Amino acid sequence: MSFLGAARAAQVCHQGRRGLSAIFSIIAVSVAAFLLSCGGSKSVPKFGQHQNVYVTLPGQGSVLLMQINTITGEITAVAQTPQVAGTSPLGLALLNKSLYVANSAANTVSLFSIAKDGSLSQNTPPTQAGSGPHSVIIDPSGKYLLVTNSLSNDVSVFSIDSSSGALTEVPNSPFPLGTGQSGPGEILIPPSGDLAYVTCSGTGTVTAFTFSSSTGQLALISTYYSGAGASGLAVDNSGTHLYVANSNAINNPQTSVGNISGYNINQNPGADYGKLSPINGSPFTSIAGNGPTVLVYATTGNFLFATTAGSNYSVWAFTINGTTGQLTSTINSPFSVTAGNLFAIIDNVGGFFYIGSPTGIQGYTYDQNTGEPTVINKSPFSTNGTSPGRIVISP
């Protein structure tokens, strides 16, 4: 019997028998199973103490199932889907028991079903998307999947079947980004659910759309120049301030390369709804460091983190003024720790901070007053010897 199976059996026993003998049975079965299946390893989380994590592996054409120990923050590889040449999976999104993966080289989106143990199975053929699908996101209603297509310079929108998870492209999809826009990458939908923002690294812009949660239609609002290499996106908890990482922007004075544009999102109903206006003091930068590419908002501490490649001044931490949206560097930021520019994500269950780099996943805790990261034991966590693409954590 596996450790997880034994723990589940013990849990059922506990619910059905409350006597002293039931308690002894729980202890005996759990300890025995732990020793037999885990060899005494403390890195394997107990039942109820882990979260499933899915990571795309572009170089291997597969998706990796991992588990976060919610006590220690350590991540363990569990299983990997069969490798499929010519797919280069990148962006991914999770909805209930369905996982959607953008295959950037095959111009398709794959649907995986998630079993109770977290393992993946693919029972239907991939769905055709645009050219070079990059990022995927599910709108707050859970009815639509949006995909940025980095080579055809548009956004595909699919309705999601509520029972099977199957995708059907909505009328008028894909939706163009506008004249002259190139290299769409990241996409973000604020909590309101009726707007969408897309960055284009090729033109250094962010494009604003209205989004209908009843029809799945995108309508272009406007395009704004953010800065060279516009890439990562984040929104604060109020949904009224949008942030864009401009990885190649030149600052004056040039103590760092790259900055973060901050925008107010117009909340007034009417023709100006969803339009962007610069936050006072924008763009914001660090006193040192180069190439902020990925942004992540941490609700605990109200921080905005920007991550860069390498280990010198690689993590920028800012506090957000909840009223004005202005960013202020925290004490001792930027931090010189091993980081990366592939992804950044906060695990809100354990308060862990994970960063994607070519060598795997860098794991940290962070100080809730200063944002300073502290490395997690055994970090970095291997992604089966290859560079990860993107990550999603199961709730």
Walk me through the structure:
The protein has 395 residues and is mainly beta. It folds into 2 domains: 1-41; 95-384, Methylamine Dehydrogenase, Chain H. Helices cover 8% and strands 43% of the residues. It contains 2 helices and 31 strands. Strands 4, 5, 6, 7 and 8 form a 5-stranded antiparallel β-sheet that branches. Strands 9, 10, 11, 12 and 13 form a 5-stranded antiparallel β-sheet that branches. A hairpin with a 7-residue loop joins β24 (303-307) and β25 (315-320). α1 packs antiparallel against α2. The protein is globular, with a radius of gyration of 22 Å. Mean pLDDT is 89; it is low at 1-47.
Secondary-structure topology with pairs:
Blueprint: H1 3-16, H2 20-38, E1 50-57, E2 62-69, E3 75-80, E4 89-95, E5 98-103, E6 108-114, E7 120-121, E8 127-128, E9 133-138, E10 144-149, E11 154-160, E12 167-169, E13 175-176, E14 184-188, E15 195-200, E16 205-211, E17 218-225, E18 230-235, E19 241-250, E20 256-265, E21 276-278, E22 289-290, E23 294-298, E24 303-307, E25 315-320, E26 327-329, E27 343-347, E28 352-357, E29 360-366, E30 373-375, E31 391-393
Helix pairs in contact: 1-2
In short:
The chain is mainly beta and 395 residues long. Helix content is 8%, strand content 43%. The chain has 2 domains: 1-41; 95-384, Methylamine Dehydrogenase, Chain H (7 Propeller), CATH 2.130.10.10.
Keyphrases for this structure?
5-stranded antiparallel β-sheet, 31 strands, disordered N terminus, 2 helices, Methylamine Dehydrogenase, Chain H
